[in-house]
Fold this sequence. Notes:
CATH architecture: 4-Layer Sandwich
CATH topology: Deoxyribonuclease I, Chain A
Mean pLDDT: 77
Amino acid sequence: xxxxxxxxxxxxxxxxxxxxxxxxxxxxxxxxxxxxxxxxxxxxxxxxxxxxxxxxxxxxxxxxxxxxxxxxxxxxxxxxxxxxxxxxxxxxxxxxxxxxxxxxxxxxxxxxxxxxxxxxxxxxxxxxxxxxxxxxxxxxxxxxxxxxxxxxxxxxxxxxxxxxxxxxxx
Length: 170
């Protein structure tokens, strides 16, 4: 029951966050937000000299106003400089880039690690907008689900992962 309540709360929070990014009838403007796990800062083992540059090129083409990056790992200053954006490096894992000024930073270290969650308030033409970035652990990896087991055994296997505890932390 507690997990259901927390999940409903998380969904409500996400819907509220999305509502903050919808077009305003007064301005006719839309705030575009891109969330992207760039896998190790966009650094490519196959093409080390092109990996991060390729990531930056994609971000430029997106024309997103705000970018929520996961697995930033050393790329934050280069990406921000290339885009001409402000940025808040929440942790080595998470970073928020914004074409609008960042006026406040949010971290909740008492309840959840900055490796997993943090946010900013940006000033969008005089209107404060809060934006949050999160990373939930990938375990258990659903591609490895024991499909030959009973429903109860599959559910027990799924509960051995980390996501529930991380969501409850919100």
